[in-house]
Design goal:
Elements lengths: L14 H41 L3 E3 L4 E3 L4 E12 L4 E13 L2 E8 L4 E5 L4 E5 L2 E7 L7 E7 L2 E4 L8 E3 L2 E8 L12 E12 L4 H5 L5 E9 L13 H7 L4 E10 L2 E12 L5 E10 L1 H9 L8 H10 L3 E8 L2 E4 L2 E5 L5
Helix pairs in contact: 4-5
């Protein structure tokens, strides 16, 4: 009798599957080890920087710092953070969170999901809340990193006994910094470019911003080059700009646009610096449309900082065209008329 049983099917080797699984486990193990090394380095550097600041006279406070985010992110959570310079300026937050991709830890995003409290030295504290408060830092291997600060729909509330804040809120506030690159130079020098945007800001009642905007909104965009940026350090009692001024630092290439109610102006200045008292000195040229309305509104502001008589006289003389603001002797002049104290850097 012949054997009619079916032939046994050939058995496929699982060697390839085991090899693939082994490679995956090896990569996962190596990546996990890298992530934990990165997490330990991040935490160690943050704590070392905190100790350095504390040794320099800063007030540094925080609860337990935790690093999470495995496998693809490094997420640093700092609860109850408070960082105050010897000058009295600083920031506090119920929670600060910093995140970076684990495969590219040179770019970090820092957010304050529960808002901030800004300390302004003798002026007191102001709370800041908004839809988003974040800062990104990239290019950490450069001499000067790229920095972007963004506040979406911020609201400012001065604490009791603190000096009022110039604005009550805004649609958006942005600040950007990057290394200043000169054509023909291989690497950036010691200067940085900065850009500031204030979009639809609302002044406090009867304050100078509300008067300038004629009960409307103030929008401004200003850009400049900060020379000798390496001198922007040493947050002592005089503030960061004091040492910078003594080192010869100044602002160059100032350009911008300002819109206050129905008034509009472009802004330009080749050089602004600070005097020994920290007040700006220099000239700013404005090409304005309907400037008299904004100046008249400033004259009506109920603020002791505004020279209402001088502003009223300037409003009568102002017409469309070129105007020159001059900062000298601690005051701000429009032609021969004084408007207010010159802006103070420190």
């Amino acid at each position: 009798m012949s054997d009619t049983s079916p032939a046994q099917a050939p058995r496929h080797s699982r060697k390839g599957l085991y090899i693939s699984l082994g490679i995956f486990l090896a990569v996962l193990t190596a990546w996990t080890a890298w992530w934990f090394v990165l997490a330990q380095q991040v935490e160690a550097r943050v704590m070392a920087q905190a100790e350095t600041l504390a040794d320099s006279g800063w007030a540094v406070e925080h609860a337990e710092v935790r690093v999470t985010g495995w496998p693809f992110r490094a997420r640093l959570a700092i609860p109850h953070a408070r960082l105050i310079a010897p000058s009295g300026h600083g920031v506090a937050a119920p929670q600060l969170i910093a995140e970076a991709n684990a495969y590219n830890p040179t770019r970090w995003v820092i957010i304050a999901p529960e808002g901030l409290v800004l300390s302004r030295g003798d002026k007191g504290e102001v709370a800041v809340r908004g839809d988003a408060i974040r800062m990104s830092v990239s290019g950490l291997t450069q001499r000067w990193p790229n920095v972007a600060v963004e506040l979406a729909k911020p609201v400012f509330t001065a604490h009791a006994s603190a000096e009022v804040f110039p604005i009550g809120g805004a649609e958006r506030i942005e600040f950007y910094m990057r290394p200043h690159v000169v054509e023909g130079r291989n690497a950036p020098g010691d200067d940085v470019d900065v850009l500031f945007r204030l979009i639809e800001a609302e002044g406090r009642p009867e304050g100078p911003v509300q008067g300038l905007a004629q009960d409307g909104r103030l929008t401004a965009q200003l850009e400049a080059v900060i020379t000798q940026a390496s001198a922007l350090r040493g947050m002592d009692q005089a503030g960061v700009f004091s040492a910078w001024t003594q080192a010869g630092g100044h602002f160059t290439g100032i350009r911008g646009e300002v819109e206050a109610g129905d008034s509009r102006a472009t802004v330009a200045s080749d050089d602004l610096r600070a005097d020994e008292e920290g007040r700006l000195i220099g000239q700013v040229t404005l090409r304005a449309e309907q400037p008299s309305a904004a100046i008249a509104g400033l004259a009506g502001a109920q603020s002791g900082a505004v020279d209402r008589t001088g502003a009223a006289n300037a409003a009568e003389q102002a017409g469309a065209g070129q105007l020159v603001l001059t900062f000298r002797n601690g005051r701000t002049f429009l032609g021969p008329f004084t408007l207010a104290p010159a802006p103070k850097l420190f």
